[in-house]
Amino acid sequence: MCVRQHAHRDRERVSEQLDYVPPKIQVLQHVRKKYACPGCEQCLKTAALPAQILPRTNAAPGLLAHLVTSKYVDALPLYRQEAIFARYGVALPRATQAAWIIALAERVQPLINLMDERLRGSGYIRIDETPVQVINSEKAASSEHWMWVRVAGLPRQRIILFDYDASRSGEVAARLLEGAHGVIQSDGYSAYDQVAKHYGLVHCGCIAHARRKFLRGHQSVAEEGAEERDRRSRGGTADR
Fold first, then answer.
1. Residue ranges, the chain, pLDDT below 50
2. Mapping DSSP to helix (H, G, I), strand (E, B) and coil, where does residue 84 land?
């Protein structure tokens, strides 16, 4: 039986729950002092604004990073982001978002150029192309356009570059692999063979594509075996 005295803390039990803190939209204010000449009071000096990646816009770097990550990493279209911002009381039309992203692409082009240079000099490039739908194009709406993807680098130093082109011709592959050396790895598209021979590259096949052939062969053998067993079973039943 407990002694009726003041209890003292012996130990504690800790339990945990996962929680979610909703994002917060905030307004950053840059307060700049303005100075006037005490003599004439005509000469005015104002402190300069902090450097901005997109001058003459009200987009802070954190907001721009969120837009790009949401669209290109989380696959969240701009019209959905517009609706999400509206729930927080912020009117941010998709046209404005698109204009900011286009302007950002121009500002980070030197970084993309550096990544492209390092990718071509890596000695091992994986490359593939995939069809994409483009609404505004000189080609027919049903025509295929292509997103070319190149990957190089170690796991924690990965370089991934996307290049759009309306064509799937070998000229595009040649342009994207110009200046490369060493090994390229791709599927069985014949354009890569031609480019590898032209630039003196070693062309490795895609392991995933090769694996598919074995899986199809295994599946075909299994299906043939099942059909043979079924035929024998039917034959054996008829004999009895």
1. 238-240
2. helix
